[in-house]
Write a structure and sequence with these properties.
This protein is α/β, with parallel strands linked by helices. The protein has one domain: Vaccinia Virus protein VP39 (Rossmann fold, 3-Layer(aba) Sandwich), CATH 3.40.50.150. The protein has nine helices and ten strands. The protein has helices spanning 12-22, 34-39, 47-56, 70-81, 100-104, 106-112, 124-130, 166-174, 217-226, and strands spanning 27-31, 89-94, 116-121, 139-142, 153-157, 180-189, 195-200, 209-216, 229-236, 248-257. Strand 7 (195-200) and strand 8 (209-216) form a beta hairpin. The two termini are 29 Å apart. Keywords: Methyltransferase, Transferase. This is Putative methyltransferase, LIC12133 family. GO terms for molecular function: methyltransferase activity. InterPro entries: Put_MTase_LIC12133.
């Protein structure tokens, strides 16, 4: 199927036209640059994050405490095993929303018996809202990255594709020198050209859209290796919306700092 070329104002009618042609999906159009995608997005604000807060936070106590994500659980367990004298483990959850991942891992954290500091770095509006709430012990929200060398584990879950300078953001996170880094749900393309698209806001499901970049897999992995990390494991996750962009991979990476004997994934 040939992709539609979009050269005029990204109207609601056009969104519906593409969705009718391609079926129900999240990705509705491609553009030559991030700026073009952002200019044709109907919503490029912190509104979605605040919506997540209002919609999900009253339900947080009902979230299952048993996460199916082995990569995050493994990284936390390995970091705790390396602690001495009951020293706390520090986890950076970059773009972690309202802290759902913390609540998914709370049983594991409790059973490990290690004091924890789970820091969510998020947008200012969301951080301000969350800091008004009586948060669980060990969960904090901030707008800035912590100093290098202070985080044992860094979690980046479905975030980097929403940042214009994806490689710079990844580089900054890796320069924090955490022992373990988990990058989840990140779309990457094998070609030598990034794909810039507009994505339907499936959280609010109100027709609003946001810009997104599918980064080059080769450059993404070069950034990882150049920062002294080994790709201990990586795999492609299933993604339902491949009707339009069937040429990208939805990737998860488990990274370890100075981990000898592991080669980057092919």
């Amino acid at each position: 199927m040939q992709r539609p070329h979009v050269s005029h104002i990204f109207s609601q009618d056009l969104i519906y036209w593409i969705k009718r042609k391609l079926g129900k999906g999240d990705y509705v159009a491609s553009f030559p640059t991030w700026k073009d995608a952002a200019d044709h997005s109907t919503s490029y604000t912190t509104d979605t994050a605040l919506y997540l807060d209002k919609f999900f936070y009253p339900k947080l106590n009902h979230i299952s405490s048993c996460s199916q994500d082995w990569s995050v659980a493994t990284a936390i367990s390995l970091a705790c095993r390396g602690k001495e004298n009951n020293a706390p483990v520090s986890i950076l959850d970059f773009g972690g929303g309202v802290g759902v991942r913390f609540l998914e891992m709370r049983t594991l954290l409790t059973n490990l018996g290690i004091p924890k500091l789970w820091r969510v770095v998020e947008l200012p509006d969301l951080v301000a809202r969350m800091n008004e709430i009586d948060l669980p012990e060990g969960l904090v929200f901030d707008t800035e990255l912590p100093p290098a060398g202070t985080s044992d584990v860094v979690i980046v879950d479905g975030v980097l594709q929403y940042i214009e300078n994806t490689y710079d953001a990844l580089d900054a996170l890796l320069k924090l020198s955490a022992k373990y880094v988990v990058v989840r749900r990140t779309p990457l393309v094998a070609s030598e050209t990034e794909i810039f698209i507009v994505q339907r806001n499936s959280i609010k499901n109100d027709g609003t859209t946001v810009p997104l970049v599918i980064a080059k897999k080769s450059k993404f992995e070069e950034t990882i290796v150049s920062n002294g990390y080994a790709i201990v494991n990586c795999f492609e996750q299933e993604h339902a919306d491949k009707t339009y962009f069937s040429d990208f991979q939805y990737m998860t990476y488990f990274l370890a700092k100075d981990h000898e004997g592991c080669e980057p994934a092919a």
